[in-house]
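Reminder: ligand-aware prediction takes two inputs, not one.
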Amino acid sequence: MIAAGAPGAALPPMDHAGRRDRLRARLEAAGCSVLVVTAPSDVTYLSGFTGSNGTLLVDVDPAADLLVTDARYRERCGTLDVPRVETSRRVEAVVAGLGARPVGVDADHMTLAQAARLTAARPDGPLVHTSGLVAPLRAVKDDAELARLRRAGAITVDAFVAVADTALRPGLRERDVADVFARALQERGADGLAFPTIVASGPNGAAPHHEPSDRPLADGDLVTVDGGAHVDGYRADMTRTFAVGGPRHLDPRLAEVHAVVEAANAAGRAAAAAGVAVADVDRAARTVVVDAGHGDAFVHPTGHGIGLDVHEAPLVTDPSAASLAVGTTFTVEPGIYLPGVGGVRIEDSLVARTGGSTTLTDLPRGPAVR
Ligand code: ZN
Ligand code: ZN
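Here is what comes back for the chain with zinc ion:
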C-alpha cells in the first residue's frame, strides 16, 4: 500500500472552476466583464492547460469561459474542466466577437504586440488594463496545491540527504553534485527540476545564482546547494550550505557567517504566520544579519512566494504591503555573500498557518554533512 502523500499515491484533483469563480468575483470591480488571461502559469492555474499556446477568457458568465489554443492541443483539451475550447480561431477573432463589452487584459503579462492586435480586432470596444487580479489568488494555496507542494518538498529533502551522503567529497566537481541531485529527484518520483540547480563552492558561493562549474570541491570549502523538485507543476525551493570535510575544516570566519545565517533563517521562520506582514518576516531575518555586521552582504529579499512558478507573489521584502494568509506558500532564504571569500544561504519553503508556519523542507541547517 502506498502511504498518502508518498510518491506514486494519487494526488487530489484540482478545482479549476472554483478558482475561476474567485477570479470572476473580482472582474466587475476591475471594470471588465471578461478577462483575457495570457500568463502561461495563470492559464494553468485557472484551467489545468499546460501547452505552450493557450489564452483563457474568464467571463462574468461561467458557462462562457473559453480556452483558446490550436489544433495541436485538441486531444489534451478533452480532459479540461473548461466549458468551451476553441482550437480553430485565433484570440483576436474570438475577442472581436465580444462586441462592445469591456474586455480586461493582464497588463502585467500581455505584450504590446498582443494588445495592439486585440485593439485592432475590436476598434470600438474598450480594452481595460488590469493588474494583480490573479496573483493574490495564486498566493493562497488550496488543499490540492498543498498536497503537490508537500510532496515536492519531501522529495527535495530526500535528494538533499542523497547529496550530503554521496556527493560532497573532495575532488567531485560542482557539476557532479548537481547531477547527483537531479538523479536523486528523478528516482524519488519528481517530474523534474523546479529550476536549474545552483551548486556554488568556495569563493563561488559569493554569487547568489552561480551556475555549477568544473571546480572540484576541497576540504574546508563551503558549498551552497539550492534546488528543488517539481511535482505536477508545483515547485519546492530549498538551500543548504555544507562544509566539505565537516565543520572542523572550516575557517572560523566562515563558521561564524554560517551561524549568523542559520539564526536569521530561524528568526524569519519564527516570525512567519498568517496575518503577519511580509515586511515583518523580512525584518526579522534581516535584523539578525545586520546586527552581526553583515547587512551589506545580504543582497536580496528574504524570500518569495512559491507554487506553479518558482518566484511568484508575495515577494518577502521590506517595504511591501502584502501579508501572509492561511495557505500562503513562500520561502525564507537569508544569505551572506563575501566577494572573493564565499557565501552562505539557508532556504526553506513554508506554508503560513494560524499562529505559525509549517516547513515543507525540514532538514538540519548546520554546516555538517550529515
Ligand atoms: Zn528561493
Ligand atoms: Zn532557492
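The two ends are 30 Å apart (CA to CA). The chain has a mean pLDDT of 95. We will return to this case in the review session.
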